[in-house]
Design goal:
By secondary structure, the chain is of the alpha+beta class. The chain has nine helices and eleven strands.
């Protein structure tokens, strides 16, 4: 079985507060994008895992963590096996959710292969034990995640956006970013407006309400080059210069910066104009019903 584990971008990310257990309550709207890792999975007597990036072949890999989570929650499959090969294309530590998408894809696949018959709610609980944004990838599309990830809901929309991703080439530490964060707010205006934009296919409203509360924290600890703030400024400067209605923000806790566009040609114009910077930039788009 071949699975495509798609990446995501955070179109809006609000940090509500820090909980007593150290976790953070969030409200975030995420869009699945047409950039993916390939996973090959089949029945096997034992667990076998391999990856084209050998540095990811360790017990901390979220795929292996997902398998352990399933077996701990459902002892009836504790001795079941599977052969899994991961072809990594999504950069890790980039705010694109590659590892979380891999984990969610394996959870869904093993639910079928091992004939567990888990409900969506049961799948969410397994996914949440692996990582806070893993439940989102069970939706296979556009959604909103809140709390620490336990509340996940699909957003029904035909609105398709085009994204210009700029990949700085280095990972950021999610843990370090949250420790550096000083912005907390229960103002849901951007979230509410963006949901309204998706419901009414108003791409201007979607773009205008893009926000990421973690940007300031990531920028404050960002010593690598190219700097995230410079990429954001370069993109926004070109967008303004070309008179295009778009906006650039950081995805997740970084390091990827992206701009969202209503039209594919606008994304191409900015990508071409950005070429003098020699950034690693790629164009992708919303992925629905993956």
């Amino acid at each position: 079985m071949k699975i495509k584990a798609y990446a995501k971008v955070n179109l809006a990310l609000k940090v509500i507060n820090k909980r007593e257990d150290g976790y953070h309550n969030l409200s975030t709207i995420m869009d699945l994008i047409d950039l993916y890792d390939a996973i090959y999975i089949s029945k096997c007597k034992e667990i076998r895992f391999s990856c084209n990036d050998k540095t990811l072949e360790n017990d901390n890999n979220l795929i292996l963590k997902a398998i352990r989570a399933i077996k701990e929650a459902y002892p009836s499959v504790s001795t079941n096996g599977a052969s899994i090969k991961l072809i990594k294309n999504i950069p890790y530590g980039a705010g694109l959710g590659g590892g979380s998408s891999d984990a969610a894809s394996v959870i869904l696949a093993l639910n079928k292969i091992w004939k567990l018959g888990l409900s969506f709610e049961e799948l969410v609980q397994v996914a949440l034990s692996v990582g806070s944004d893993v439940p989102f990838f069970l939706l296979k599309g556009l959604g909103i995640l809140s709390g620490i990830g336990e509340n996940v809901n699909h957003i029904d929309s035909k609105a398709k956006l085009y994204y210009l991703l700029v990949l700085p080439g280095y990972p950021t530490s999610t843990k370090d970013v949250y420790e550096a964060n000083k912005i907390y707010s229960n103002d849901y205006t951007n979230i509410d407006n963006m949901i309204r934009g998706f419901h009414f296919d108003d791409k201007d409203m979607i773009v205008d309400n893009m926000i990421n509360d973690l940007e300031e924290a990531t920028i404050s600890i960002n010593s690598e080059r190219p700097k995230i703030i410079d990429i954001i400024n370069d993109l926004d400067g070109l967008i303004k210069e070309k008179g295009i209605h778009a906006k650039a923000i950081m995805s997740g806790s970084g390091s990827t910066v992206f701009a969202a566009f209503k039209e594919l040609n606008d994304a191409k114009i900015i990508k071409d104009a950005l070429s003098y910077k020699n950034y690693n930039a790629i164009i992708t788009s919303s992925k629905r019903n993956a």
